[in-house]
Automatic annotation (TrEMBL), chain A:
This is CCZ1 homolog, vacuolar protein trafficking and biogenesis associated. It comes from the Eukaryota. InterPro entries: Ccz1, CCZ1/INTU/HSP4_longin_1, CCZ1/INTU/HSP4_longin_3, CCZ1/INTU_longin_2. Residues 350-448 form the CCZ1/INTU/HPS4 third Longin domain. Residues 198-324 form the CCZ1/INTU second Longin domain. One of its GO terms (biological process) is vesicle-mediated transport. It holds the Pfam family Intu_longin_1. Residues 15-100 form the CCZ1/INTU/HSP4 first Longin domain. One of its GO terms (cellular component) is Mon1-Ccz1 complex. Belongs to the CCZ1 family.
From TrEMBL, chain B:
This is Vacuolar fusion protein MON1 homolog. Residues 2-80 form the FUZ/MON1/HPS1 first Longin domain. It holds the Pfam family Fuz_longin_3. Belongs to the MON1/SAND family.
Length: 460, 396
């Protein structure tokens, strides 16, 4: 770069996040009671009150134009605030600093509106799983819970790596052959029958979902929690070498590799605690409170959900351990074997020919050949972030109308981006063919659809 | 300062210009930048009536002055502006639409305008049916300042809103992008009462020059009558998409990046008359929406694009930006990509052929003899409302 032309790039980052309920402190002098959670805590009390007051005012202002659809977001030059009414009168507000590119003379601000807006929605869906004690329990209890939960959750929120996949909030399904799938099904049935306390089950392999007995929306949230929070926290001791220091907990159990991810870390430990996280799922019109038991063997994980009213004790856990452990271990190695066989048949996985993202709104299935690795903190994509933002723009355009559409775009760098929406499915393809014209691009995408999506109709 | 607030149904956009704050609440799906640009037009329209210098000065003296006192009677102008911004693509493209006219006719008309001049006359416009027919300008004016489409739009709007028919008007007007601190004096008259489609606008810097300028108009009228020039304008062929014989194309907007012969450009665009399906005001407004959306995406500051092809339920839309032009096109929804491309090629060829007729290719100039003894005063600093500016040089 020429000297003196230094470009500093700022990524979006969370400035503050707070939750308030205006009903809790309606009178003058009681404003502080409205605030249920505020991050960062170091902010001076009056400033907190002022910020909350401003949000209330903005929401009221926009209510004059549309009583049912008040403000969703507010933009200033430096940051953006997002408002979300999680439940009646409970407001969550997230303030994000704008991504900026600072050049010596001009302070540009490339906005990434769509992403940030959707991300707040995602984080709020998520919240639904854990803190539904709004109705029950007093304010004290609520503030405590919120503090515990959000403190941990906010650390997992990595705004700079959010992209289209987060907007979808989909689930990655693990492809399986029929035999193995049936084996898993019958395993689940057997366990549910033997342990009658278990209400719902979900089966995952390698961070991808195979089977779930939960409602779609709940599963989506649970899936997100598992893949961004729970799984990353527990490394894989059994995959470590025999003499690795990570092994000791599992030592002594040579029958199987199963262990609890939530609950007692080591059954043999006499002081083990039998406390499981509670989640709330949506059944019909009400909420069900359940214990979440996550049990893992190698790369297979099963979630059992038991009615929270039941007290889970050592006896139950040991029963579960002895029943599930060996079977799960066997299943896990079966799946692994099948997977390898399939891989050998289909050939080694080289650089995928087409870069695309596919999402099906109906079953929440997502597939991406663009993301090489996607965890909570890192999103390695093989394409430039600006191209990902173009995907977001197209997604935004699609969302406006409920019809089947197609948008083809040629970016300044001569990349072509094609977005197709058909029924409830969306497909985004990125092509790097600098000298292609519209017709050629069209042909390429048709080829892709024929090979990978030949049973789905996309507009031509 | 808060820039915008979004909710599901509405967008609220704020703009601050000097002592004035503008707020727009919109239920359309325009982007924040587009809405802010509309607010800027409103601001400029107000400046065109009051000048920026006087607005700033008034508020400096009295912070809580009620500007409505000065804007009394101008509601029609501002309302008219808001309405026309919703259906006229010229705001979105920042360009002027010209009346298609064979270049020989246009040259002859310009020649007539060039001859009818008087000292202190700066611009002469001939407008027909809200399209620009010809514009001639004083030679020295172009040195530093340039006539901008936005100023022309405001001028057109002002004339439209005055809604006079016969007779003539002499009114002060400020062109905000040209010089936002001082007034021109505009002589406006229709040359063809009672139809009132052809309008002559003469801009002078001299407040007292009414009679001199009216004399110019008389000369122009005479020359028109003797050559039957009004017939040329009346006979002009506004074109339809059918004339180009492209079956699937319904409508387009084409804006070349360089039309005028010499360095100074007046951005222009051309578009056909609306087809049957798009004649009503609602349909025109509805069609402008997807055009605006594509315009917004293609000119995005952070991720601009070269081409957008969007097939949707009601129509298939295309937006294309190259170094030579910018164009938006609307096809029937079931058009195949092959036919769309071939029709587009045909269209481009047709436009190239008709270029002379569709656009104003050069801006003729005249010179009025400079008056002796006039000093060039600083631009803007000594400008007071309703004071005539002495000498053309003070415009620069």
């Amino acid at each position: 770069m020429a000297s003196g032309m230094q470009e500093k790039q700022y990524t979006p980052s969370l400035l503050s996040f707070f939750i308030y309920n205006p009903k809790f402190g309606p009178r003058e002098g009681e404003e502080e009671k409205k605030i249920l959670f505020y991050h960062p805590i170091e902010i001076e009390k009056n400033e907190k009150i002022r910020n909350v007051g401003l949000c209330e005012a903005i929401v009221q202002f926009t209510r004059t134009f549309s009583p049912t659809n008040p403000a969703k977001s507010l933009h200033t030059q430096k940051n953006r605030q997002f408002f979300h009414e999680a439940e009646e009168n409970y407001w969550m507000v997230m303030v994000v600093r704008n991504p900026m590119v600072e050049k010596p003379n001009k302070d540009g601000k490339p906005p990434t509106v769509e992403y940030q807006e959707e991300e707040i929605i995602v984080s709020n869906l998520f919240n639904g799983t854990f803190s539904r004690a709004f109705e029950a329990g007093g304010v004290e209890l609520l503030t405590q819970k919120l503090e515990k939960f959000f403190y941990r959750y906010l650390q997992t929120l990595h705004l700079q790596s959010c992209d289209l996949l987060d907007v979808f909030g989909g689930i990655s399904f693990f492809p399986l052959d029929k035999m193995t799938y049936l084996k898993i099904q019958s395993f689940v049935n057997r366990v549910e029958e033997s342990l009658s306390l278990v209400k719902y089950t979900a089966f995952l392999y390698n961070d991808q979902l195979i089977w779930s007995g939960l409602e779609q929306d709940d599963m989506r949230i649970l899936y997100k929690y598992l893949t961004t929070s729970l799984f990353p926290r527990h490394s894989e001791p059994e995959l470590a070498g025999r003499d690795s220091p990570l092994r000791p907990e599992v030592a002594g159990n040579l029958l199987h590799y199963g262990r609890f991810l939530t609950g007692p870390a080591n059954l043999k430990d006499p002081d083990a605690k039998f406390r499981f996280p509670r989640i709330f799922v949506n059944t019909e019109d009400s909420y069900e409170e359940l214990h979440l038991i996550v049990y893992k063997a190698m790369t297979a994980a099963v979630c059992f959900m038991v009615n929270a009213a039941v007290d889970l004790n050592r006896e139950f856990c040991e029963q579960l351990d002895s029943l599930v452990g060996p079977q799960l271990t066997l299943l896990a190695s079966d799946i692994c074997e099948q997977f390898n066989i399939n891989r050998r048949i289909s050939g080694p996985e080289k650089e995928p020919q087409f870069k695309f993202i596919y999402f099906n709104h109906m079953n929440l299935a997502e597939k991406s050949t663009i993301h090489m690795r996607k965890t909570a903190s890192v999103s390695l994509t093989s394409v430039h972030p600006d191209l990902m933002k173009i995907l977001g723009d197209i997604n935004c355009d699609f969302a406006r109308v409920n019809e089947d559409e197609e948008i083809i775009v040629k970016a300044m760098t001569d990349y072509w981006v094609v977005g197709k929406k058909s029924d409830q499915r969306e497909l985004y393809v990125i092509l790097n063919q600098k000298n292609a014209n519209l017709i050629e691009v069209n042909e390429e995408v048709k080829r892709l659809c024929a090979t990978q999506f030949n049973n789905i109709f996309f507009l031509d | 300062m808060i820039q915008s607030i979004f909710s599901d149904e509405h967008t609220v956009v704020f703009l601050q210009k000097g002592p004035l704050v503008f707020v727009s609440v919109s239920a359309t799906r325009q982007s924040e930048q587009q809405l802010r640009r509309e607010l800027l037009h409103v601001y400029h329209q107000i400046v065109s009536m009051l000048t920026q210098a006087s607005i700033n000065r008034i508020f400096e003296r009295r912070k809580n002055f009620d500007l409505r006192r000065l804007l009394f009677g101008s509601e029609k102008v501002l309302d008219g502006l808001l309405d026309v911004m919703d259906s006229d693509p010229s705001f979105m493209l920042s360009a002027v639409q010209c009346l298609p006219l064979p270049s020989s006719s246009r040259d002859a008309l310009s020649h007539i305008l060039q001859k009818a001049i008087t000292p202190d006359l700066v611009f002469s416009f001939l407008i027909a049916n809200n399209r620009l027919v010809s514009v001639v300008q004083e030679k020295t004016v172009l040195e530093d300042a340039r006539l901008k489409p936005s100023d022309l739009h405001l001028l057109f709007n002002l004339i439209r809103a005055s809604a006079f028919q016969a007779g003539e008007i002499w009114m002060p007007i400020c062109l905000p992008l040209f010089n936002h601190d001082c007034y021109f004096y505009a002589y406006v008259a229709y040359l063809d009462p009672p139809e009132c489609t052809v309008c002559l606008v003469l801009l002078s810097t001299d407040k007292e020059a009414f009679y001199a300028v009216a004399e110019c108009k008389r000369k122009i009228e005479e020359a028109f009558a003797s050559q039957n020039a009004l017939q040329w304008v009346a006979n002009t062929q506004l074109y339809y998409v059918d004339d180009i014989s492209v079956a699937n194309l319904r409508h387009f907007l084409y804006k070349p990046s360089k039309v005028l012969d010499h360095h100074r450009q007046l951005p222009q665009f051309t578009c056909p008359e609306m087809e049957v399906g798009y004649r009503s005001q609602e349909e025109r407004i509805r069609l402008l929406d997807p055009y605006r959306n594509m315009h917004n995406r293609i000119h995005s500051t952070s991720r601009p694009l070269k081409l957008i092809y969007h097939s949707a339920g009601k129509e298939t839309l295309l937006a294309w930006v190259t170094s030579k032009f910018e164009m938006f096109a609307c096809f029937t929804p079931l058009v195949t990509k092959k036919s769309a491309i071939s029709e587009l090629t045909k269209l481009l060829r047709w436009i190239k052929k008709e270029e002379d007729r569709l656009f104003i290719c050069h801006l003729p100039k005249y010179s009025t003899a400079p008056q002796p003894g006039r000093s060039s005063t600083d631009r803007g600093s000594s400008a007071r409302p309703n004071t005539s500016d002495t000498g053309l040089l003070s415009l620069l």
